[in-house]
Amino acid sequence: MKRYHLTTFGCQMNEHDSERMKGMLDSLGYAEVERRDDADLILFNTCSIRESADNRFVGHLGEAKRLKAEDPERVVGVGGCWSQSVKEKVFERFPFVDVAFGPGQIPKLAEFLTSDSLTAQGYFEFESFPGHLPPKRARAFQGWVQISVGCNCVCSYCIVPSTRGREVSRPAGDLVAEVERLAADGVREVTLLGQNVNAYGRDLPRGSKVTFAELLGMVDAVEGVERLRYTSPHPKDMREDVVRAHAELSSLCEHIHLPLQSGSTRVLKAMRRTYDRGRYLDRVALIRELVPDCAITTDIIVGFPGETEAEFEETLEVVEEVRYDSAFTFVFSPRRGTEAADLPDQLSHPVKRERMERLVEAVQRRAHERSQRFVGRTVEVLVEGPSRTDASRLRGRTRHNKAVNFEGAAEPGELTLVDVASATSQTLAGVQHAGRTLAAA
Ligand code: 5AD
Ligand code: SF4
Predict the structure, then answer these.
(1) How many A from CA of 104 to the centre of ligand 1?
(2) Cα–chain-centroid distance for residue 427?
(3) How many CB atoms are closer than 10 A to CB 435?
């Protein structure tokens, strides 16, 4: 039996692509191994969102080169967004690579492996949804469903539209059928994935058009799905019906990830985000009105070309005003082929770093404050397994997407109740609620 090793970089979309790659390799009779040294097939699913993502992956390829030199029969494959962004140059930079493919071309890996081809191959066409590859899920009780591929936005900093192509929605009926299969297979939490999930459906043919809010309702109705999440939405497409769904659909979790990127209207315009600070804050106000306890999280970029001190301070103001439950913060990284990479007034590293430090301080302080509202409450937790820091405790997540470490007894995949005793900016800690202990279960 042939053995493979796969390393994944990047976002949940890539992780899900990797699950499907694994499902496909299983069906070809490959077995997954934990160490790269033991593999006949060494695979990378790459990311290109920031320069740091590129660099991290280049180190790993060095090891693949050594292993390939040891045993030239080994096959080295590079998939994903970085691969797509450089295309055939993969082979110039890394001549030992046998097969390279973009995110839309995963099935071509199977074609390559089953052919007798000895020459290196690259597959970089955009297709719509890349076939039905049954995923090999990382966790039995959590499932991802890709509702669309690609992105029609033109955010000036972002490489994704060029690595994942134009937006194509999958028919709602296919998606519901997939969720039903997952539920029958024991999945309790479903996350809908797309580059811009709330633009879902606009490209579907007339007659079978379904909006994102309607899709949420259809998935919520599937028996067995206890929790429903989605990522990522775009603030410009965040309509009231979607916010309202969070209040009305029992499975839809009280968490909305709403990427801000910048709090300055001038910078947002240069980013081509198509909303301004006021409209973003209106969306937040709508969420607070309709779903008062909702967790709101975000993505923020500091040091966009030309960002002034005053504009950066506007971002800090929004952070103070919104009081995010958590935020992913990034230093602007110029990406090949994007508009922002060629803008004048690129900021120096010390300026970017200094702003980043101030941003992280504000984000963490606010997140810490926000977290305190859970102390003293009993929250529903989906158990993931033992705590990472203390194996005698359990770890899971709340509907608000907070990680919880707690004392108690429960199996992964179980929903239980936890009394929260303390909270940091990142995690909650507590004890399983009396009456939901092992004895009572
Ligand atoms: N530089 C820094 N951060 C970026 N992101 C996307 N492109 C870049 C870039 N060139 C961030 C955005 C996005 C998140 C996934 O990554 O904040 O929402
Ligand atoms: Fe995901 Fe973007 Fe990285 Fe591609 S480039 S893996 S879409 S984060």
Answers:
(1) 21
(2) 19
(3) 9
DSSP codes of every residue in 103-124: GGGHHHHHHHHHS---S-EEE-
Taking the domain 3-123, which CATH number applies? Answer: 3.40.50.12160
> Which ligand 1 atom minimizes the distance to the CA of 299?
17
pLDDT digits (tens, 9 = 90+) for 356-365: 999 999 999 9
The residues lining ligand 1, judged by C-beta closer than 6 Å to any ligand atom, are: 49-50, 157-158, 259, 261, 299, 301, 330, 332-333, 335
User: What distance in Å separates the CA atoms of residue 424 and residue 374, rounded to the nearest whole number?
Assistant: 10
All structural domains of the chain with their residue ranges: 3-123, 130-370, 375-432
Residue nearest to atom 7 of ligand 2 (CA): 160
Regarding pTM above 0.90, the answer is: yes
355-391 pLDDT, tens digit per residue, is: 999 999 999 999 999 999 999 999 999 999 999 989 9
Whole-angstrom distance, CA of residue 429 vs CA of residue 47:
33
Contact between 71 and 59 (Cβ < 8 Å) = no
Query: Domain 130-370 classified CATH 3.80.30.20?
Result: yes
For ligand 1, atom 17, name the residue with the nearest CA. 299
Q: What is the amino acid identity at position 55? A: N
Chain CA centroid to CA 72, Å: 35
- For the domain made up of 375-432, the CATH class stated in words is mainly beta
Q: Which residues pair with 331 in a beta bridge?
A: 302
Give CA torsion, residues 112, 116, 120, 122, to 10 deg: -30
CA distances 439 to 85, 391, 394, 408, 416, Å, are 55, 21, 17, 11, 13
